[in-house]
Design brief:
The longest helix is centred in the middle third of the chain and has 27 residues. The protein is 44% helix and 13% strand. The protein has a four-stranded antiparallel sheet with strand order 2-3-1-4. It has five helices and four strands, in the order βαβαααβαβ.
Length: 179
């Protein structure tokens, strides 16, 4: 590796789920902040092993759904009961039961859109390029290998000590990845 290139971080490869799970616990305990685990499928409990907080997506979706549901209800009520009154079959202008369905539809539609947009924003997607794509070994993450990457911008990162630490955790291969 040439010395004039910037280092993105360290990448460690593991072969099994228990290995990467326990390695994540050790990395968290060591105090690293800017790191991630990569696997070909979701691993139950890995978010707790990594010390990740609860996702904000449920609050985004719930809040958006509530606001647009109430807004749709009030909008439909105003349009049919105040703005453009039409007597249909002798029904009252502000009969509340008729306005729940449009409000519910607005809530469901806004929740679906908020879920999609919120998920993309929180995951920083679309991300067309990542420095880990430079690693030849990282191509196996979509097939049969598990990885932990620690970014060089982490306050506890040291090129030599971090690589040694990852090897102590049982990684089969550890490499420094360039930006």
């Amino acid at each position: 590796m040439s010395t004039n290139k910037m280092i993105y971080g360290a990448l460690a490869q593991f072969n099994t789920v228990p290995e990467v799970y326990h390695a994540c616990e050790k990395v968290r305990e060591r105090g690293f902040i800017k790191w991630d685990a990569h696997s070909p499928f979701p691993i139950h409990g890995l978010d707790k092993a990594m010390g990740l907080p609860q996702s904000k997506l449920s609050w985004i979706v719930g809040g958006t759904s509530a606001i647009f549901g109430i807004g749709g209800f009030l909008l439909w009520m105003w349009m049919n009961g105040v703005d453009y009154k039409m007597v249909i079959a002798g029904k009252p202008f502000l009969g509340l039961l008729g306005y729940f369905l449009p409000g519910f539809e607005c809530a469901v539609l806004s929740a679906a859109i908020a879920c999609l947009v919120g998920m993309l924003a929180l995951n920083k997607l679309p991300q067309w390029y990542h420095s880990l794509f430079r690693s030849e070994a990282f191509k196996r993450v979509t097939d049969d290998s598990f990885f932990i990457s620690i970014e060089a911008t982490d306050p506890k990162f040291h090129p030599v000590k971090t690589v040694e630490f990852l090897k102590e955790l049982g990684a089969t291969q550890v490499e420094l990845v360039e930006q």
